Amino acid sequence: MPVWLREHSWRQSLSAVYLSLPLRGARATAANIFCSEQYLKVSIPPFLFEAVLYAPIDDTNSTAKIGNGNISFTLYKKEPAMWDSLTLANADKEKLQHLRENAVLKAQEKAKEETEAKKITKQENKKYALEATMKLEEAERKRIEDLKEKERQKVTKELELWKNQQKDGDKYKSIQAREELHQEKEPLKERKNEKMNKSQIPNEGSSKTRLRSTRGCHGSCSIFSQDLKEEQLPAPRAAATIKVNFTPRVFPTALRESRVAEEEEWLHKQAEARRIINSDLSELEDLKEEEKNPDWLKDKGNKMFAMGDYLGAVNAYNLAVRLNNKLPLLYLNRAACHLKLRNLHKAIEDSSKALELLTPPVPDNENARLKAHVRRGTAFCQLELYTEGLQDYEAALKIDPKNKIIEKDAEKIRQLIQGTMQSS
């Protein structure tokens, strides 16, 4: 049951209104402040304050400060003027209800516009980042191509220079060989001439000259054979097998193509999961290896929930959470079990934890976030905290505006809040 704040003090100038609300004995909880052009609402359990302002204000630049058991508002006027009172006088309930609904609709439209603007800005930033990355990659590709071209030209020049040196060396060798051959032919010609001269002498010396000539031939042949042996190429090397050893890695990709930081994080998570599973838990001693899987335990809890065994489902979800506390569906399903068992505070905790893990909000987790808001709102309403419950139902309506069931439940909660306000 909320306690309405009747005591407040205010003062004004031509451009601003200064409002002060005392919070005597309030708990240290988060304050829920809703401010529009002409409607102000403050909810700090168990206190509640609501005011329809005398004239429109600039809700964007207006500020609120909480401290020392007091809330201080600085509300800037849209038009400079002195107000006769802080709130509208003689306003009936229908007009107040109309102003409240308009304020909520404007706030929703404004939030939607801000979300769209952020989305457009994010897309533009992504586009700019992509273009900048493409330009950098193109520049890097061009730089690499230039380096390759320079290296290609350098290697081509070195190859041409080596070919020219080889040609010069071959020419020099051929000239040297001709000179050596010419030098060897000259004594042969002289001996031949001597032989011709001696052939004119009688037969007595003919045999001797023949022997000498043959000996000279044998001598010249041995010289040529020695030169040929010196010019022979060395024998080819023996064939062999070269063994290449690679460093063993967990991932099949090459080290230059892998992302080391992400792989190390994945390995760390796997080691932590194995350590938790292999730790000395009494619940795991009698379980099979496949029963230590959090997904298997989640499916088992779902089957128990469908059969009406809510306590068994809670135990299955508890063990799955101990094995892996990063799965939002485990907390979401356990919150449904706690609702059935009337463990309302635990249902609120599990729903809040599921919403914390379901970030950032993306289209793929819309259904899970919708269920989390509805279950937490249901638990709040069963605890008679209708304001907090309405907030969750309105958040669910933002996710799925066409859901008639959630819209009807939200309308019932609004009626309950109005009845509570009228009775107080």
UniProtKB/TrEMBL annotation:
Residues 181-197 have a biased composition (Basic and acidic residues). Residues 3-87 form the CS domain. It comes from the Eukaryota. GO terms for biological process: determination of left/right symmetry; epithelial cilium movement involved in extracellular fluid movement; heart development; inner dynein arm assembly; nervous system development; outer dynein arm assembly. Keywords: Cell projection, Cytoplasm, Neurogenesis, Nucleus, Repeat, TPR repeat. SUPFAM superfamilies: HSP20-like chaperones, TPR-like. It is found in: Cell projection, Neuron projection; Dynein axonemal particle; Nucleus. One of its GO terms (molecular function) is nuclear estrogen receptor binding. This is Dynein axonemal assembly factor 4. The lineage of its organism: Eukaryota, Metazoa, Chordata, Craniata, Vertebrata.
